[in-house]
Amino acid sequence: MKKLTSETLRQLYLQFFKSKGHAVIPSASLIPENDPTVLFTTAGMHPLVPYLLGEKHPAGNRLCDVQKCVRTGDIDEVGDSSHCTFFEMLGNWSLGDYFKEKMIPWSFEFLTSPEYLGIPVKDIAVTCFAGDKDCPKDEESAKLWRECGILPENIYFLPKSGNWWGPAGTTGPCGPDTEMHVIRNHAEADKLGEYDFEKAPAGTFLEIWNDVFMQYNKTAEGSYEPLRQKNVDTGMGLERTLCILNGKSSVYETDIFEKAIQSIEKLTGRKYGESEEITRAFRVVLDHVRTATFMLGDVKGIAPSNTDQGYILRRIIRRAVRFGRNIGLPQGSLSKISATIIDKYAEVYPELVKNSGRVYEELEKEENKFSKTLQQGIREFDKVVSALPAGGVIDGVTAFHLYDTYGFPVEITGEMAREKGMTVDAKGYEAAYAEHQAKSRAGSEQKFACGLADHKELTTNLHTATHLLHAALKKVCSPDIEQRGSNITEERLRFDFNFARKLTPEEVAEVERLINEQISLDIPVVMREMTLEQAKAEGFTGLFESKYGEKVKTYSIGEFSKEICGGPHAEKTGLLGKFKIAKQENVSAGVKRIKAILTK
Ligand code: SER
């Protein structure tokens, strides 16, 4: 097995798939585009859903990349050896091109060839789909693995719970997968029959790679319809693979965090590994500062706020501050740790360098804000719990008071309560919050799916309306207006843009008039592919300049709107109905939000 650094592993992976005819595409933003159901990009395939469903990708039908991902479902587990809220996924895709017959031999070659990972064949186990009423047993993959040289006793079969991937939400592309594992304990592995994989004690196998054979679309009714095109979607977690190759037991001990650990040691005078408690605090700070750095430094950089992505970011920064206190991290440290992280990723994610000013500024602002109330809040919390019996429940109104007055996100209060063997009345909190805010952020974290697959027409029309809105705002308010965020549900579009003030009633009316005029003219929406340079020269706008690499898709609506965009869009503006601005909101100083609807 080769010992590799993160830089070399990324490079080797992309180089391998380039040599197999794949276009290397840059990582998409961490903020999903036009996906109403999820807050962050959660897997390499996520930004590619429209293409897995049949849209044409401008870079071709063989793609590979390293994708930035965020998953915050297990945030309270961060601090142990394996959980991270941010990770990178190495992935390659066939969009209706090759299938198992090529992917399995390539996987074998990449894993075992001395030029690449050099893992001994006898140390590799694979699992394949065992078959059920929706899809037959995957004998074909098992046969291909045997032909490559995987030992027959190291091939296992698992049901849907183990060897099926997707859809990312409740509907969308999915299929059986085959997973590759490194055998860490041969004595235990040798005892297992071909259906016994899950009976192995923890640590017997370490999963390294997942090849998904996406051949179904799961519908809202729960049935599996064959996809028009059969795809391959593979994912290899960069951090986890580094651990395995370098024989480390935790991602925090890989080269990725080396400099950041040194920085925390210098700032606190403590040593990583000094005790379990200290190590846990180091890890929380490391993970959370890295995640916050990537969120703030993203092309669609978000800022801490009280809703959606901004709320998750706020929660992550505040949790880092709280754990930082436990190891004596002085106020103002987060931006210093962040600087070592930006340095480490500078070449792979240049947007971090470009946006570093914003990253440090926002980190400092949020850290200062929370630091002001943290001590007092802890005192208040202690007072509350000391008045409760063992195993008591902190009521919702009190939890809301801790949030509203001392800035404790309810999840942090919940975690502190658990440390004392208590809980928080989450329902009561939501009720108190809803009462106070009239609108609650409840459920925002449950958003997890790929919305473009759903109710496609409604969301497609709203996507086209978003382009019209963007163009109209430029014309009516300022040519400098740029998109700062976009989110679409079946009911409405939401568009964030840089502008200092709310629109006047006259401006609102003019924007609506211009858009409805374009709709009544029933203008065709024209897609053309071209190089990024050509698109720029022709006056197309687009924030996501590096997203598709060489060739980009452009959408124009007459001369009114010209944007670089992945699509999909309505064929003609006449399909849209009537456009109306429903609401204006303030996102932050300098960023405004419009919610708009389409009616019949
Ligand atoms: N979508 C699969 C995963 O996330 C493979 O890329 O594991």
Give a concise summary.
With 600 residues, this protein is α+β, with helices and mostly antiparallel strands. The protein has helices at 6-19, 49-52, 100-112, 139-148, 186-189, 238-246, 258-268, 276-296, 308-326, 334-345, 350-354, 356-386, 396-406, 410-419, 426-437, 456-476, 505-520, 532-537, and strands at 23-24, 62-70, 86-95, 124-129, 155-158, 164-165, 172-183, 205-218, 224-237, 393-394, 423-424, 483-488, 493-498, 525-531, 551-557, 561-564, 578-588, 591-599. Mean pLDDT is 91; it is low at 441-454.
Structure characterization notes:
- With 600 residues, this protein is of the alpha+beta class.
- The protein has helices at 6-19, 49-52, 100-112, 139-148, 186-189, 238-246, 258-268, 276-296, 308-326, 334-345, 350-354, 356-386, 396-406, 410-419, 426-437, 456-476, 505-520, 532-537, and strands at residues 23-24, 62-70, 86-95, 124-129, 155-158, 164-165, 172-183, 205-218, 224-237, 393-394, 423-424, 483-488, 493-498, 525-531, 551-557, 561-564, 578-588, 591-599.
- The strands form four sheets. Strands 1, 2, 3, 4, 5, 6, 7, 8 and 9 form a nine-stranded mixed beta sheet that branches.
- Helix 2 (49-52) links the parallel strand 1 and strand 2.
- Helix 12 packs across helix 13 (396-406) and helix 13 (396-406) packs across helix 15 (426-437).
- Serine (SER) is lined by residues 43-45, 91, 165, 210, 212, 233-235.
Overall pLDDT, averaged? 91
The CA-CA distance between the termini, in Å, is 62 Å
Number of beta strands: 18
Shape: globular
Task: List the total number of helices.
Answer: 18
Assess the beta-strand content as a share of residues: 15-25%
Biggest beta-sheet profile? 9 strands, mixed
